[in-house]
Amino acid sequence: MTATTSRLHLTIRVDERRYGRAVTIVEGFSMSSSEIDSPASELTSSPAAGGTATEDTIELQGDHRDRLPELLTERVWGHLRALITGVNF
Question: Predicted confidence band at 23 (pLDDT cuts at 50, 70, 90)?
Fold first, then answer.
């Protein structure tokens, strides 16, 4: 993925899982599993929520849709930008 040829369009939604528990899902990363680990770690550590990542989604336990846009821009974007453009911070 390069900054000149692609752009991230992320979607944040909340699903209900077993026993009525909420899961916040961020979709649209289109990265390899190894590339998405760092942003996933940042997102799970801030609200102190458990979570998992796949190639195009990050899932967090609980309803975090109100906080995620801010977290994505403040904490995670630096990691994503470094992966997209190859810039080291």
Answer: very high
Q: Is 25 exposed, middle or buried, given 0-12, 13-18 or 19+ CB atoms closer than 10 A?
A: middle
| Coil, strand or helix at 45 | helix
Read off the DSSP letter of residue 62. Answer: B
Q: How many other C-beta atoms can be found within 10 angstroms of the C-beta atom of residue 85?
A: 12
Report the C-alpha gap between 5 and 64 in whole angstroms. Answer: 30
pTM: 0.71
* 11-83 CATH fold: Translation Initiation Factor Eif1 (3.30.780)
Hunting for tokens 């909420």 — which residue is that? 22
